[in-house]
Amino acid sequence: MIESPLKIIECPRDAMQGLVGFIPTNIKAAYINQLLKVGFDTIDFGSFVSPKAIPQMRDTADVLHQLDLNSTSSKLLAIIANERGAQDAASFSEIVYLGYPFSVSETFQMRNTNATLEDSLGRLEAISSIAENNHKQLVVYLSMGFGNPYGDQWNPDVVIHWSERLNNLFGIKILALSDTIGVADEATITHLFEALTPALPHVEFGAHLHARSDDYEGKVAAAYSAGCRRFDGAIKGYGGCPMAKDDLTGNMPTEGMLNWFQSNGIVTNLDIEQFGKALAMSSTVFPIH
Questions:
Q1: Residue 244: what pLDDT?
Q2: How many whole angstroms separate alpha carbon 170 and alpha carbon 121?
Q3: Cα–Cα distance, 90 to 129 (Å, whole number)
Q4: Distance between CA atoms of 38 and 187, rounded to whole angstroms?
Q5: Beta bridge partner(s), residue 75
Q6: Going from the N-terminus, what domains does the chain have, and what CATH number goes with each?
Q7: CA dist., res. 185 & res. 236, Å (int)
Q8: Residues 234-275 pLDDT 10s
Q9: Against a cut of 0.90, is the pTM above it?
């Protein structure tokens, strides 16, 4: 069996979107341009959603126009929540991936996209057609992939069911399990990836994990050992879901992941010098931290 290459996805959009203070467009673009020099597989750079819902991302199209994509191998991903957003994102040739959050918790799907699960399936069918017609690839994030606080039924079989259903219905080839509220533990991470990878061998499963600064290593190790080769992160762990019960739970810190991979002899193929510059630059982009 051929070993899949490691893919690291940097998520400045996720780090920025919840901030109250608006980050100027030129600062966003300069930061993402530095990230593009690092060699990440993908940059989750922005979103095409209602500016009322996510005001921080209202300038995504303007940011895109300021990006230097001529000398990078990184691909761009934009988050969308409905057909209109998909059409907007798909109109840009520079964007490779459309990311759609599909929750295995109906309560969270309503909170996040104002849609029931059946409504979300209908949206995803339309979005899938838009992506195909515009030669875009679709990445579906399985929100609440490791549990939820709303009392909806959750167990690993629920996640497996929706993974199989989305692949069968729409041919989704990239599914990222999302620890929306920071509840994933090593045993659950291991069980899910060990179950999903052989069940859907042609699907690329990713890990969008949230973590405290003192517990990320075990989560990365569990996912990698269970076969995951696609990891989302955000420098310094900025961002994270506001519904997490622990205020200290942010996104998976990219520098922590890189340290773990390097200490375990796992090749990342990233430019560490350029990453260091991005790490230093982050303090000017996120001054409140």
A1: 45
A2: 10
A3: 11
A4: 32
A5: 42
A6: 10-285 (3.20.20.70)
A7: 21
A8: 999 998 654 444 454 589 999 999 999 999 999 999 999 999
A9: yes
